[in-house]
Design goal:
Keywords: Hydrolase, Protease. This is Aspartyl protease. With 394 residues, the protein is mainly beta. Helix content is 7%, strand content 46%. A hairpin with a 2-residue loop joins strand 9 and strand 10.
Length: 394
């Protein structure tokens, strides 16, 4: 069997090189069920509004991220032993923007007899077996795998983060207002794309439930002087096995249209050197009906006027490095930290005057919660000029 070379990303466009074989030869999963069905799976609570649900594999239950931005279903190498999979069944996985050969992993793939969600069996699903440790470092709700589009497209789905459910059915999810239908097209026959327009900008964006942001735009997006904007640089995107680095620009869009005429107001969007994505930062404000049987999506507002508000932050983002230290991974120009000489990569040695060295998962999750709930934060940094303690504000 020829090797697949797959870039499976949570937050970037996946790309596939399949040699001489057609992708359909590898994606032949099916649902075995008598009669019609509609079932609800509970969303496992998490701080990023991800649709994480419980699945069952070989009699054991695991937490999987429902990710329309992943072409392939992924399972942790803690569940399936890579050493027991044939050597010629290999996948090379890397960040789409990466040219660093060291960042790439060679992993294995296998066909699982069935994956159960509630009592519905999804059979003969191709799985990529991947080390998920890197991404789990930054998720306070750990995942054991990712439900990708090779499984998702087998039926229709309704994502309701507000009420904590992901429903799935072999029937189309209806809505009284048929004008709300947004047409879906597909990249590589699987990844769902929607048409986006804003003034002179018209483009397709990947509908990505594995992206916790609002809207990621391409670098040639045409802006105007009237748009509120800020720029920054550092690490901004977490893929399965690495973070990407570069420049990033944040803009506030007064409104944008999805599909022909579905309008959203006051959207915080980000311009960077990547592919356009529409993520959970927007979708969490709606009940999202994904009718793959009819190639359309319907967004049902939770209230009469759903708006994506402007996000307030401390002007920087923080992450865990490969030594389990907390460090600055991204800073906006003009932020308090940048004005005080802090740089991307500087280590944090104390949070609100509480010393830390190697940060534990519990400490990182508490720190994430503090950033969301508090408007003032005191951090101590180890910089080239020595330690600096700085009080920062949203």
């Amino acid at each position: 069997m020829n090797k697949l070379i797959i870039c499976i990303l949570l937050l970037l466009f996946p790309c596939i090189g399949i040699g001489q074989n057609n992708i359909n030869d590898y994606l032949k999963g099916y649902i075995e069920h008598s009669g019609t069905f509609e079932q609800n799976a509970s969303v496992i609570q998490n701080d990023r509004y991800y649709p994480i649900i419980e699945v069952e594999i070989i009699g054991k239950k695991y937490n999987f991220l429902f990710d329309t931005g992943a072409m392939m279903t992924v399972v942790s190498d803690k569940i399936i032993d890579i050493d027991k999979i044939k050597e010629d069944n290999k996948i090379t996985i890397s960040g789409g923007a990466s040219t660093d050969e060291k960042a790439k992993q060679t992993e294995a793939y296998t066909v699982i007899e069935n994956i159960k969600i509630n009592d519905i069996e999804f059979n003969d699903i191709l799985l990529a077996v991947v080390d998920l440790d890197q991404i789990n470092k930054h998720l306070c709700t750990k995942i054991d795998g990712i439900i990708g589009m090779n499984l998702i497209k087998l039926c229709n789905w309704k994502i309701d983060i507000f009420n904590g459910t992901v429903s799935f059915s072999d029937r189309v999810f209806e809505h009284p207002d048929q004008s709300k239908k947004i047409a879906l097209s597909y990249h590589q026959g699987l990844l769902p794309l929607v048409d986006i327009s804003h003034r002179r900008n018209k483009f397709k964006a990947l509908l990505d439930t594995g992206f916790d942001g609002t809207l990621q735009l391409f670098s040639d997006f045409k802006t105007t002087n009237k748009m509120k904007t800020r720029k920054g640089e550092g690490y901004y995107t977490l893929t399965i096995n690495q973070m990407e680095s570069g420049k990033r620009e944040e803009i506030i869009l007064d409104k944008l249209s999805i599909g022909d005429d579905f309008e959203i107001k006051n959207v915080t969007a980000y311009i960077l050197d990547g592919k356009p994505l529409l993520g959970m930062g927007i979708l969490k404000e709606y009940i999202t009906l994904l009718n793959f049987a009819e190639d359309n999506m319907i967004l049902v507002p939770k209230s009469a006027e759903s708006a994506i508000g402007v996000h307030r932050d401390f002007g920087a983002k923080f992450c865990i490095n490969n030594r389990d230290e907390l460090q600055v991974c991204f800073m906006w120009d003009g932020s308090q930290l940048k004005k005080n000489g802090v740089k991307v990569g500087d280590k944090i040695t104390a949070i609100n005057n509480n010393p830390i060295d190697r940060i534990t998962e519990e400490q990182y999750c508490n720190f994430t919660k503090i950033q969301k709930e508090d408007s003032i934060l005191t951090l101590t940094f180890k910089t080239r000029d020595g330690e600096k303690t700085i009080e920062i504000h949203k």
